[in-house]
Structures are given as C-alpha cells and as structure tokens.
Design goal:
Layout (H helix, E strand, L loop, with lengths): L1 H30 L6 E6 L3 E2 L4 E10 L4 E10 L5 E5 L3 E2 L4 E8 L4 E12 L8 E5 L3 E5 L1
Parallel strand pairs: 2-10
Antiparallel strand pairs: 1-3, 3-7, 4-5, 4-6, 4-8, 8-9, 8-10
Length: 141
C-alpha cells in the first residue's frame, strides 16, 4: 500500500513535467517569427581589361513583398557605394533581374553588390530594402 502511493506520486510528477515541457515548447514556437524565403545574387567576371566592356548581372526573389526590384551598386578602393542601374519592378511570382554593361575606365579593383527592394505596388515611391547580396570583386588590368 505504501509502495503504490509512492509510485503514484512519481507518475504524477513525471506527467506534470511532460505537460509543462510541452506547454513551454508550444509557447516558444508561437513566439518565433516566420521567416520569408528568398535570396539575391550577383555575377561578374573575375578580371577585365582597361577600356573593355564587361557584364554584371543580378537576380533575386523574396516572398515577403508584393512587388520586387533589384538594383546594382558599385564602389572602388573602399569608397562609398554608387548606384549603377536598377531593373524593372516585377510581381512576387517572378524573379527580379538586372543587367549592366560596364566599361572599365582604369586599373584597380571594383566591387559590386545587388540590393533587393520590396514594394507595396508597381509605382511605390518608398521601397524597403529586403536583402543585400555578397560582394563580387572584378580586377581591372
């Protein structure tokens, strides 16, 4: 009889621990925000020759915004970023793309990045930066 009571108390304590752990897990999962899927990428040649034209392309997608636009930025020698060009505004179902034909004016290293913007409508004047790509370096010789 004494043995049954101890086993019953141990079983009740184990059940309470399991129920508490499940409750805590459900509250934690409910508090975690959902993340949007997507990405942005930029491609360029590793080297270019002075006076020659080379192509830089960028593309990106994100399911968090209704409309998307991707832009290319460049800089040289660690200076400030400058906008090269932007692509057309596309609906979320499509992938945003942009292509730039750049003429290498002088020797040195150029860096490029792509920036993906989310818009509320096709004519939205206040885009929101969604993602930024990694850097691509072009050595001009």
């Amino acid at each position: 009889m004494t043995r049954t009571k101890k086993t019953g108390m141990k079983a009740w304590g184990g059940r309470a621990a399991v129920v508490g752990a499940l409750g805590l897990a459900s509250v934690t999962l409910a508090a975690v925000p959902a993340f949007a899927k997507g990405g942005v990428d930029v491609t360029a040649p590793h080297t270019a020759h002075v006076g020659k034209t080379f192509t830089v392309k960028a593309y990106g997608d994100d399911d968090a915004a209704g409309y998307l636009r991707v832009c290319l930025d460049s800089r040289s020698a660690g200076r400030a970023w400058h906008r090269v060009t932007c692509g057309a505004v596309v609906d979320t179902g499509a992938e945003a793309r942009v292509t730039a034909h750049v003429k290498a004016a002088h020797r040195g290293a150029l860096q490029y990045r792509a920036v993906l913007y989310g818009l509320n409508g096709p004519h939205d004047r206040h885009p929101v930066r969604e993602r930024t790509s990694g850097l691509v370096k072009v050595d001009v010789r």
